[in-house]
Write a structure and sequence with these properties.
The complex is a heterodimer of chains A (about 250) and B (about 120). Chain A has about 250 residues and is of the alpha/beta class. Helix content of chain A is about 30%, strand content about 25%. In chain A, the strands form two sheets. In chain A, strands 6-5-7-4-8-9-10 form a seven-stranded parallel β-sheet, with helices on both faces. In chain A, strands 1-2 form a two-stranded antiparallel sheet. Chain B is built from two helices and six strands. The chains are: A alpha/beta (about 250), B alpha+beta (about 120).
Chain lengths: ~250, ~120
């Protein structure tokens, strides 16, 4: 008598040894992208922005590079220019960054990622969708997403922005583009911040720019100082260029 | 720690694919550029699946290296250090051929024996 068993699909196989388990595992092909759901949500966010004629910018950096300090200048500029701006502020536990941006004319929607499972290190598209639902899109021209400070995880998640921008501080050293190529490749613009500290550091700006070009030759670079405000004009001009073209 | 988010997404995909059957192994394809830490991923999977129907299942990861095609015609397989320039000409005008994969490719389900035929169908000698 042979040793055989019947599978759920009706097929019957013979096996040499049947003592260890009743039947062998069955492999089911899946082939599903792990971030498929996030990408669908990101497209929905982008479609919502497009429907309202809103440009959305995703700003990323490591902790302490100066995202919030740069944004404080930028919001002041946008307020003067009459560009109606919403900010999605990603922060793990606090409202400290949102507090720093209060009073600059923007609608701020705070997203504490700590409310999720384990305190997320990034914003994903569904989180941004929740935060955006607290903004009045009918009254906005621009939405800036201030992502969680981190050079790895935020680069993985499309949040539905039209452009991604990185704030990089020269105190972080020249080698980071080579160590975090995914992040440096994910952005179209790099704001090289804390340039006012250049005389006090051993930072080799040319080496940094060469390293950046090795991973992202197309990146647009602005050398800025959020402390003095130097260099921010070009960044601001880029930020509102479509508005200028529209006359809006 | 995007591994935690990854595991949550993987859980959703696997839970849909399995029907109501127990899962033994989840097969993943993960490109080197995704910067996933295998030990962290395995740990997060245990955390995410604890006290769920997927508890006890394990991840089997096919790590895909970064392969670049350069405008000069050369092909580069990138090593452990993620230097994304051509090994032949040092150029940065490269196209990613592989390395960005992030996919659940298959699941191994514990085969179920039709009701009422469990032991009866296994006839040894």
């Amino acid at each position: 008598m042979g040793r055989f068993h019947r599978h759920a699909d009706g097929t019957v196989h013979e096996h040499g040894d049947h003592s260890a388990y009743a039947t062998g595992p069955e492999r089911v092909t899946v082939l599903e992208r792990i971030f498929g759901e996030n990408d669908v949500a990101a497209e929905a966010n982008r479609a919502a922005f497009d429907a309202h004629g809103i440009r959305c910018i995703n700003v990323m950096s490591s902790p302490g590079a100066g995202k919030t300090a740069v944004l404080a200048h930028t919001l002041r500029y946008l307020q003067q220019r009459g560009v109606r701006t919403g900010v999605v502020e990603g922060d793990i536990e606090t409202s400290l960054d949102a507090d720093r941006l209060a009073g600059l004319g923007a609608q701020v929607s705070l997203l504490n990622t700590g409310a999720g499972f384990g305190g997320e290190c990034h914003l994903d598209a569904p989180m941004v969708a929740r935060a955006v639902s607290a903004l009045d899109l009918d009254t906005l021209d621009l939405v800036i997403v201030e992502n969680v400070g981190n050079l790895v995880c935020p680069a993985e998640f499309d949040v539905g922005a039209h452009d991604s921008v990185m704030v990089y501080a020269i105190t972080e050293g020249e080698d980071k583009p080579l160590k975090y190529p995914v992040m440096f490749r994910a952005v179209g613009v790099v704001l090289v911040n804390k340039m006012d500290l250049l005389p006090h550091l051993d930072f080799d700006l040319d080496l940094f720019l060469r390293n950046l070009a090795r991973v992202n030759p197309a990146a647009r670079v602005h050398q800025v100082s959020a402390r003095t405000g130097a260099g921010l004009d070009d960044w601001h001009a880029w930020l509102v260029r479509d508005r200028v073209a529209d006359g809006g | 720690m995007h591994e935690l988010s990854l595991c949550r997404s993987i859980y959703g995909i696997v839970d849909r694919a399995r029907g109501d059957r127990p899962v033994e192994v989840v097969h993943l394809q993960i490109g080197q550029l995704r910067q996933v830490v295998p030990q962290t991923l395995a740990y997060c999977w245990d955390v995410i699946t604890a006290e769920t129907p997927l508890a006890g299942s394990r991840l089997d990861v096919d790590h895909v290296p970064v392969v670049l095609d350069c405008a000069c015609g050369a092909r580069t397989t990138v090593g452990e250090e993620l230097v994304l320039t051509c090994a032949a000409c040092d150029g940065a005008d490269v196209t990613l051929r592989t390395g960005e994969e992030l996919m659940v490719t298959a699941v191994d389900l514990t085969a179920t024996v039709p009701a009422g035929s469990g032991d009866a169908i296994s006839r040894d000698g």
